[in-house]
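Give me structure tokens for this 295-residue protein.
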Amino acid sequence: MNQQLPPLNALRAFEAAARLNSISLAADELHVTHGAVSRQVRVLEEHLGVALFSKDGRGLKLTDSGIRLRDVSGDVFNRLRSTCAELQQGQADAPFVLACPGSLLARWFIPRLDRLNRELPELRLQLSASEGELDPRRSGVDATLWFAEPPWPADMQVFELAAERIGPVLSPRYAHFAALHQAPAAALLSEPLLHTSSRPQAWPSWAGSNALDASTLKLGQGFEHLYYLLEAAAAGLGVAIAPQQLVADDLTAGRLVAPWGFVETAARLALWVPARRLDKRAQRLAEWLRCELDR
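Here you go.
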């Protein structure tokens, strides 16, 4: 006795034909030809070694074996349809968990969160912030928004959103503002610069892009995280360096100024989604983020 299951396509064609009592209607439902359904039914009959349909005038009727298989296959396919629908509904009802650095969350994302919730209510976004090393593969996280450099790993779907551009920023409240804001970039070589331990290469990278000797930079007050660094700069404590996206609102409001502009780095602001958990909501979020970054 053949203990192997018949080909799934053959079972699917038979179940539809038996349920609808019509090869033609089954073909329409499955979006295939009449002949394709007939061939699959013959494959199934050959596999089982029994006839499932018999001639009934110009039509067909189920044999006793066909009736028995119809009842079992119909129940199985109905349960499969129901379970798949429940799984899809469960995914739609679950919140979409987005991880991102706390500085990005506080300085760029939260000011736009109300608009995102209005425009993508189906997302049901839940945010997870961290200033440590993010793990986009972490269980319970649907996507990660952060600055990173390619190449991208094969097990992640990465939606590139914008190039990272970094530059020095300072507040009009800073004591040296009048002397610095119209000075050339080289003036910063003699300035004690605010910096962060989470991004030690930011100032040297900027100096190199401006043809300045990075070894002559003078680092002043340090901070553990970028968020605190930018709060210190806004308070007038010195010159900081940051991605343009994270200070865009401060520049618009005049809390910070960027006299020397921004330079592009190799990093990209990107939405990382584990390939095994990719769903349509990630694509919609990526499209929304691109539009928001282009405003």
